[in-house]
Amino acid sequence: MNINPDKKFLSFLGKAVLVSLTLYLLYYTIFTAPDTFLTWRDILQSAFQNPLRYLYLFAAVLIPVNWGLEARKWQLLGQKIEYISYKRAYRAVMVGLTLGFITPNRLGDYAGRVLELKSKERLDAIGAIFIGRVCQLAATVAVGSVGLLYFIQLLYWVDYPGVCVSMALLLLVINVVFLSLLYHAKAMVALVAAIKPLKKLVRYVAVMGNYSAGEMSQVLLLSLWRYLVFMLQFILLLQVFNVKLNLLEYMCGVSGTFFLKSVVPSVSLLSDLGVRELSAMYLFGLLGQERLQVLSASLSLWLLNILVPSAVGLIFVLRLRLFRKGEAL
Fold this sequence. Notes:
By secondary structure, the chain is mainly α. It is built from 14 helices and no strands.
């Protein structure tokens, strides 16, 4: 059964709106916000003058590695819904990234990945997407806890040892809770089913209970590898902008920044732009670094991993089929 003209028109209109909104936000972010524009001008000047400018290119080379690992994660998770080739998984991740760019808390990522599936039951993939995000958050919290503990002992151990021990125990509990939820996802599904207002959502999250401990460990490992790639990119960019620290300080500063960025709620339409920057300036400021240099590195990280791939993802958005054969509006 062919898709009728009304659906074709709505499909075209939907894609046109998405593309137009993304292009507008890209333009607004770079060219119309004075502070942002001035920051990027300083970024370019510093990058061309610094003898370590080649590290910026190395960080850029890692972009497809970063999102390639995410695509592999989605390929593994999405198999519970339908067979997904690595190529399709990569395309779905790029579409989700672009749609997530224009929605608060990257909610468009869910829509992008779901739309790339062929199954009529593709909405059941929402639970798989959620599990993937929780795994990435678990990796961020685990490594970030170590970074925060470094700052806690650096600043407060001498005067407040009891508070420091309490914070360490709290972080340990948070990590245990995350891992327990992931390895007992069936319990999460049962909890949703037990809450009457949420009962209708069970269908969309039921897939979470279908992953074995081995599969969950594999996704967690991929999440950790992706986290380490992201961390390496940030450290390279910090060096480009003359933020000079030892390796431990780099790693603790970056991991602490990612932790704070992940746990602080955000309603930004620009993929949490601002939360990471404030966190980075605060933590690296504690290490005696100039805030503008840290800000430049953080904005560069956003440019490389969010802005550029989101623009590339527009190509895949244009090829989306918003309606499948036999589907009703």
